[in-house]
């Protein structure tokens, strides 16, 4: 397979190897061949099985990367003189033919090089929400997605990791994490059952980390989903999302993790996922800790390599422990007309505080069966923007905020909140939940407001539909919060100053 003459118009062939496959890079294509292995969790031992899983790999990955995964092709001839292509009945092996991409475009490298931008994170969040909404759903009678199917691999991680990481400090860390995991499984068991009944167990990607995404032409493509084990793929969509969130955290990009989570929530509407998310974050980190331990147990490492693998395992254990730590919840709401910077400022805060943002524009549209970027074609004060629709929107945001605060999440409510009677229920909710409350005032001069609203409306890339007519109506009826409400003025503050000011308010209220 290394002979250039096997391939059309190729002068050199490179080979990559993983523990389960070989990839031959020839010209504009890559040919992936599965090793004849049976590792228990996968079985490629027979030619017929390798063909089946090659076909599955193409089928599954074309859901997200149709331009990369081309087809499954036979390799004929002999081991000494192979021929790419030919009659399937003459095949001695099977390969997945893929369009080749640059290794430096893998997202783990893009992040390390400082090339990964917020717009790329937003694109991933939107794409994953769209993907999860459209894939096959596990049947009620399937074994996938039950509390037992969630518990078994999670608890097996600890059994295996104890054998791999015998040091006292690692055993103590595993004790803490296993105790938390068992308690969490008991707590979320009703949620796991409910999510299965609601169709949240789907034929997911299963291996969503940055090394399985590429950035090409400023577009992110997700590839290399799991084809070899149904149980690894038929999972809660939250478990799928948790992998990339964990990976971003581990790679030192927690702000991107929080941003990605919020985009996914806005486009999926699956806020109930937050109840089970900590469990799956810990699970994903524990899998990586175990994998590092498995590699450490393999012979032939230099002392430096062994030390690096042990450090890696401990980093994942520490990350898993951080995922178990409760974050101090608080409730922040905004006040300001369209274009005053509410979404910009709350975007800063959701990254800084690992908060969940509820945008009225998004919540309103979902109430009426619309996606965040769908145009409702509503007139001023008409359609989905009537007084009755606004009342429903604020009631739904209050309901969601109460739910999220109850789960222990900081909550940001991004809405105009023009009247005190709209703000009061949220202030009362914070008091009932015994969490700090912050009113963030957002202001700008009228000309700046008009320029921002006009530019945003023209772009068509935001959930907000307010145009200049809406803005003028808001300005005509604008009432600033009373001094007794102690609003924090956020406009004009840098990201650092805004974060510090909000933190001071939160800590002062505790």
From TrEMBL:
Q: What is this protein called?
A: Aminoglycoside phosphotransferase domain-containing protein
Q: Which PANTHER family match?
A: GLUCONOKINASE, SLR0207 PROTEIN
Check the record and name the InterPro entries matching this protein.
Answer: Aminoglycoside_PTrfase, Cell-binding_unc_protein, Kinase-like_dom_sf, P-loop_NTPase
Organism, by scientific name, is Plasticicumulans acidivorans
Query: Which residues does the UniProt record annotate as the domain Aminoglycoside phosphotransferase?
Result: 99-275
Q: What superkingdom heads the lineage?
A: Bacteria
